[in-house]
Design a protein that fits this description.
The chain has 224 residues and is of the alpha/beta class. It has helices at residues 40-48, 84-89, 104-116, 132-146, 162-177, 189-195; strands spanning 2-8, 10-11, 14-15, 20-24, 29-34, 55-60, 67-70, 150-154, 181-185, 198-202, 207-211. Helix 3 (104-116) packs antiparallel against helix 4 and helix 4 packs parallel to helix 5.
Length: 224
């Protein structure tokens, strides 16, 4: 799905990650891990197209798919006068006309998304009433409704309780089982080892990319 050829991610032409070579396969489930400041979120934003590469090449095979994106700190203001259902409905926009409204199938999928994250009873609540965990559940429901071939998650469990984290982890596993490709920036090594078959570990000078279960990951490291 994504081929990386000596790809370096960073800001303002300043390299942060090492050069990366390898392929993110369609249907894979990969965690990006590493020390704070190693460029995990920067790499994810580069792969999503929000930042240009500092150097190297990123290739989509056969073409760039729709991406379901969950930011580390979402730009949606909690004071904005939207309901939980309004936000989840945004996941339908890529497939329907904004002016035609939701059809029956779209409304059904929104209802299913709310049910999956336990927010059915709060569908009509305004988002300023939500706790941090409820807000994150809502954003997950929107990503699930979108049903994008590729889902990118930037530290999705930061600042939420363990019960909510487990509910959302179950949704990620389900999305992967349904054929979606998952790429997530994570800090919890136990969760990575338990749920993510592949790991991309960023270091200062090189990266290891391979099976999470291996004590020494099968590295795909670019030569100088």
């Amino acid at each position: 799905m994504i081929e990386l050829d000596h790809l370096v991610a960073g800001y303002d032409r300043l390299a942060i990650t090492p050069a990366l070579c390898g392929t993110l396969e369609r249907g894979s489930m990969t965690a990006i891990v590493g020390a704070n400041g190693c460029g995990k979120s920067t790499l994810l934003k580069t792969l999503a197209g929000f930042l240009p590469p500092v150097s190297g090449v990123l290739r989509w095979q056969p073409s760039r798919p729709t991406i379901g994106w969950l930011a580390q700190r979402h730009a949606l203001e909690s004071q904005f006068p939207l309901t939980v259902q309004d936000v989840v409905c945004m996941g339908c926009w890529p497939r329907i006309s904004l002016f035609r409204g939701l059809n029956r199938d779209a409304r059904k999928r929104v209802a299913q998304g709310l049910e999956r994250v336990g927010l059915t009873a709060m569908a009509r609540e305004t988002i300023d009433t939500l706790s941090g965990g409820q807000f994150q559940r809502m954003l997950f429901a929107r990503v699930w409704v979108q049903n994008a071939p590729l889902v990118m998650l930037d530290e999705p469990f930061t600042g939420i309780d363990e019960i909510t984290s487990q509910v959302l982890m179950e949704q990620i596993v389900d999305m992967h089982r349904e054929g979606q490709t998952i790429l997530a920036v994570l800090h919890d090594s136990e969760r990575v080892a338990r749920y993510f078959p592949q790991t991309l570990r960023l270091g200062e000078k090189a990266a290891q990319w391979g099976a999470s279960a291996q004590s020494q990951a099968t590295a795909e490291v670019c030569s100088a």
